Structure formats: C-alpha cells, structure tokens
Amino acid sequence: MEFATKLIHAGIEPDPTTGAVMTPIFQTSTYAQTSPGVHKGYEYSRTHNPTRTVLQNNLAALENGKYGICFATGLAATDAVMKILKPGDEVVASSDLYGGTYRLFTKVFQEFGIKFHFVKIQSGEDIIPFLNSNTKLVWVETPTNPLLQIVDILSLSSVTNQKGLLLAVDNTFATPFLQNPLSLGADIVMHSLTKYMAGHSDVVMGALIVKDDALHQKLAFIQNATGATPGPMDCFLVLRGLKTLHVRMERHCQNGREIADWLYRHPKVGHVYYPGLPHHVGHALASSQMNDFGGMVSFTLKNDDLAEAVKLMENLKLFTLAESLGGVESLCTHPASMTHASIPKEEREKNGLKDTLIRLSVGLEDIKDLKEDLSQAIG
Ligand SMILES: *Cc1c(COP(=O)(O)O)cnc(C)c1O
User: E strands along 291-357, which residues?
Assistant: First the structure.
C-alpha cells in the first residue's frame, strides 16, 4: 500500500457493529467480562482502548514498523524508552536536541544513574569514541531542532547494529512522509504527534514505533505499568489529522523552501538554516535520506543584534509567536528563551545555538502573505 493510502486506510476499518466509517471514540474506562478473565481483548483503558489500538496500528504502518505505542505526550514516549535502561547504563545522544529531551535526560534520568554523552553526531563515526561496554542506546533527532542539522541514519545504524545497541530516532520534524528511520536500520522511532502528525495544534500526544517483538513487549509493559497513556478523544483527533498528512506536508515543504530562499536573499538576514538550501552542510545527505526538506526554517539577522531579533518577533502578525510547530498556522519561536531555555546558555552556544536565532514553523497560508509579513517585521 502506498503512503497516501496508508494514511487513510492502514489499520482502519468501518466499525463492525454500526458501519461507522470514522473510528468511534470509545470513551470508556472499562469493559464487560462474561466470566472472570474472559473478555474481548479489552479489560481497562490504560492497558488497551479500541480508538488507541486503531491509531497505534496506523502509526506502525506509516513508519514501516510492526507496533505503535502511544503516550500522553512526546516526552512521555521518550521517558518510556529511558525506562528500559538500568542504573550504570550509558546513552550517546546528539548535542542538538529538543530542550525538553535534554532536560528529561539530564535532570531526571541522570539522577537515576544513567550516564549521557552529548555529542555532535552526523554519522556513525562520531559515536565510536563514546561507546563502551555500558552503552545501550543512541538517541538522535534529524533534522535537529532548531538548527536543522541532518544525521546519517543508515551510517549510524550500521554501527549500532554491529555493536548490539539500540538506535532511537526522534522523527518529529521529518514525519514518515519525509523519512522512515526503521527502514534505515533504526530500532525505535519516536514522535511528538503534537506537531505535524496531528497537525492542527489542538492535541498533545507522543508515540513510539518499533519492529522487534521483544522490544515492543518491554515498551508496551512500561506503557501500561507507568500509565502515561492518551485518552480516546485525543487518539481520534490524531487519526483525523493523519488523514491529510501527505497533503499538508507537500505544502509545508513548498512554503518552507520559498521562505528559506527569500530569507537567504534578504540583505538584512545573516544565516539561514534549511536543509533544502544548497549551502547547508547536510544538503546532499538530506537529498538522499529525505523525500523533501520540510517546513522548519531557522535564521539570524546579519547584525546579530538580540534587541532587533526580539523586535522582529514582536512585529510579526501572521506568524504567531508561540512554542510548538507543525500546525496549519505559521508560528515563530525564539529557541533560547522558549523551546530550548532548559539548556544552559553555555551548552547552547557550544552547540551553535545563538541567542539571536529565530525559528519559523512555516504553515499553510498563502506564501505571498507570509513573505509580506516577514518583510514588514524585518523592516
Ligand atoms: C515537541 C517535541 C518533543 C516533545 O513532545 P511533546 O509532545 O511536547 O511532549 C520532542 N521532540 C521534538 C523534536 C519536539 O519538537
């Protein structure tokens, strides 16, 4: 089945009891049993819920995996992966990460005795010096948030598979429309479904997708045992959003590319971070690893003046100044004070994240209006 068809049909059948074409919202906490322990596969909604099951099966198909496992938020999904580790285990993680992921690793799991190495990762070679007999997991994002760096998943997985390590890829920025990490040898795909996947800025949710039966068992056990599961109404909203993912992503990519080109040629703009631009260091890799370049664009002003960058963000009218990304509406974020404030300034700067960086989530509005808005805000 091709991707567009999967979005609309994979794991989704009309409801057998009523014929309802849309997956019903099974707003129930519990299920009748005919005899103790005799039921239809559903006992309690933390463990299983039919609306969630449909979403999980759909996600598994979209990522060319076997199992989807949904969580109340993206961070709860990441949290579940960390809980398969033990004190003394070590993780090699990319140094350019979503701020909340960095906070979860350093402020929660480091306290429990897990050791993290934050490394600039572009390919498999970069992790080799940080591996030892305690290393269990490698965690990356690609494209990264907010610098849009590209990590070579195939090259990383050739190292992790050979050494028997798990490779987890946060695929939030790309979505399965642009790349499938499991098909490139990764073991776990993580999504903040909050972003492009649900796509309408009206729900917060996360997911893991895996192929391996034993790994699925461990993660599904944690999903039920620790209990950060999403409700059925939210699962319905994500299913509804996913039906148009391909159509939305095409336009996000088109608008993203136009905005990146336009910024690149603007005399007051300094650096533009967009993997679709030929000068981007990851451009060749992105061209082969991804189907297109996405709708996220970061940039700085030529004078690198923080007060001017702040004024620009205040001046924007169509781009709403807000955290998050991937919705139909365009958003603007100041990573240093918003999404990445939980990373210490010196760490941020070491990784190339300047306080003057502005991050755009380019939405689906008319490109002419978006350019006009940026133009008046830059002044
Ligand atoms: C938003 C985000 C997360 C966290 O997901 P939540 O749904 O907000 O918990 C993780 N990774 C990336 C890349 C994100 O953008």
Answer: 296-301, 320-321, 331-333
Of 173, 178, 194, the one to substitute when testing ligand 1's pocket (max ligand atoms within 8 A of C-beta) is: 194
Structure tokens at 104: 């979860």
Task: Kindly report, residue by residue over 318-375, the tens digit of the pLDDT.
Answer: 999 999 999 999 999 999 988 888 888 898 888 888 999 999 999 999 999 999 999 9
Q: How is the beta sheet containing 296-301 ordered, strand by strand?
A: 269-273, 296-301, 358-361, 331-333, 320-321
Q: Phi/psi of residue 360, each to 5°? A: -110, 135
Residue positions counted in the chain: 379
| Residue type for position 5 | T
DSSP letter at 44 equals B
Residues 6+ positions from 110 with CB-CB distance below 8 Å: 116
Mean pLDDT confidence for 100-121: 97
* Residues paired with residue 30 on neighbouring β-strands, in sequence order: 44
The set of catalytic residues is 46, 98, 170, 195
Across the strands, what pairs with 91? Answer: 116, 137
Pocket test for ligand 1, best of 102, 195, 201, 323 (most atoms within 8 A of CB): 195
Cα 73 to ligand 1 centre (Å): 8
Interval 90-108 mean pLDDT: 95
Q: Is 170 close to ligand 1, i.e. is its CB under 6 Å away?
A: yes
Where along the chain do the CATH 3.40.640.10 domains lie? 3-242
Q: For the chain, where do the domains classified as CATH 3.90.1150.10 start and end?
A: 245-378
SS3 261: helix
| pLDDT tens for each residue of 164-203 | 999 999 999 999 999 999 999 999 999 999 999 999 999 9
199 exposed, middle or buried (CB, 10 Å; 0-12, 13-18, 19+)?
A: buried
What does the alpha-carbon distance between residue 70 and residue 216 come to, in Å, rounded to a whole number? 12
Q: Which CATH architecture has domain 3-242?
A: 3-Layer(aba) Sandwich (3.40)
Is any ligand 1 atom within 6 A of the Cβ of residue 146? no
Q: What is the DSSP letter of 307?
A: H
Which pTM was predicted?
A: 0.97
Cis peptide leading into 230, omega within 30 of 0?
no
* Domain 245-378 CATH superfamily: Aspartate Aminotransferase, domain 1 (3.90.1150.10)
